[in-house]
Amino acid sequence: MTATLDQREYFYRLLPELLAQDERIALVLAEIGVGYLEPDLTEDVRSRVINVGIREQAMIGVAGGMALAGMRPIVHTFPPFLIERPFEQVKLDLGHQGVGAILVSSGGSYGWPQGGETHFGQRDVALLDTLGGWTVHVPGHVDEVEWMLRTAAATDDCVYIRLDGVCNERPHGQEDASMTVLQQGNSGTVISVGPMTDRVLVAARGRDLTVLHASTIRPFDGTTLRTTLTAPDVMIWSPILRKPLCVRSIGLYRTYGIECWGSASSPESAGNTGLWPNTTKPTVSTSRGCPDRWTTSSVDQFWRRSYLLLATL
User: Fold this and answer.
1) CA–CA separation, 129 vs 170, rounded Å?
2) pLDDT at res. 112
3) Per-residue model confidence as pLDDT tens digits over 247-299
4) Are 129 and 185 part of one and the same domain?
5) Cβ contact 48:146 at 8 Å
6) b/e sequence 183-215, b meaning 16+ C-beta within 10 Å
7) Each residue of 197-243: pLDDT tens digit?
8) Are 155 and 197 in the same domain?
9) Contact 39, 206 (CB under 8 A)
10) Quick one: 26 and 149 in the same domain?
11) Which end of the chain has less neighbouring CB within 10 Å, N or C?
């Protein structure tokens, strides 16, 4: 499948087929997406496409009721309307009732800048992390969208698929949720999430770095990171966040030692990664309540509170 095809467009192409193949599947919308789907819906599936109008809380409530009745709801809109606005319904109507749904957003964090703050989605994964039990996919290519949807539809789990308007030239994601080793080196590790990987590979070319690609960030594949780590310097490039994150001195013992952490506000200040030559190191801060030593549990909690991706080192 061509990488120039928008992930959201491909998602709309897949939906009529998924609905026709499995009578358990239902699609719940809040106006957004209706116009794209309507021409391709056939009469045999139209009754399982529910548009609640501009009522995002009701959208999640309807999905929860369908899941309680044994159906497999797919819910779709922009990230802030899917996670932030109806967060209480996500927490109660899905989580508290012990039922699952497939939440599919589009637009990423800043994919539609004309919409402004109301349409920015950078807080979605951080909010879901407060609930736990969610699988979170960030596809880097349209081919990954299909297996993520089909795998999620075959379960009753809580799954979030975060579509973006940007794609890598080819798919790198693994269906077993593990990270893909794209390059190995000795001076540091770069974890590239979803559609960031083409740009990361260009920046890392010819440099002594390990590059890992992640299309699934929850659960986090700590095993691949531990087995490939050769230097205690890790940078995360993610479309979810506004800037790259640098993690220094990651201990790999029973008690994990995270001495400090910080973020590079721009490529020019990310010199410690080796991605950009002749630059200064980023400012690393220990003023965010970061203790000297951590237990496994406190490491997990710290990463979640900090919106980082290293949730299960």
Assistant:
1) 29
2) 76
3) 654 443 222 222 222 322 333 333 333 333 333 333 333 333 333 333 333 33
4) no
5) no
6) bebeebbbbbbbbbbbebbebbeebebbbbbbb
7) 999 999 999 999 999 999 999 999 999 999 999 988 899 999 987 66
8) no
9) no
10) yes
11) N
- CA nearest neighbour of 180 among 139, 225, 136, 142: 225
Residue corresponding to tokens 């209480």 = 88
Of 106, 130, 162, at which residue does a domain stop?
Answer: 162
Give the burial string for 66-92 (b: 16+ CB within 10 Å, else e).
Answer: bbeeebbbbbbbbbbbbbbbbbebbee
Query: What's the pTM?
Result: 0.79
226 shares a domain with 108? no
Whether omega for the bond prior to residue 219 falls within 30 degrees of 0, making it cis, is yes
First to last CA, the chain: 34
Task: Compute the distance between CA of residue 47 and CA of residue 208 in angstroms, rounded to an integer.
Answer: 55
Whose tokens are 């800037």? That residue is: 243
Q: What is the mean pLDDT of the chain?
A: 80
Q: How many CB atoms lie within 10 A of CB 296?
A: 12
Provide the domain limits for residue 290: 180-305
Asked if residue 175 belongs to a domain, the reply is no
**Listed residues 162, 189, 216: the one ending a domain:** 162
Q: How far apart are CA 251 and CA 16, in angstroms?
A: 48
Whether the predicted pLDDT of 39 surpasses 70: yes
Length of the chain: 313
CA-only gyration radius of the chain, Å: 20
Give domain status of residue 118, yes or no. yes
Dist. CA 73–CA 64, nearest whole Å:
8
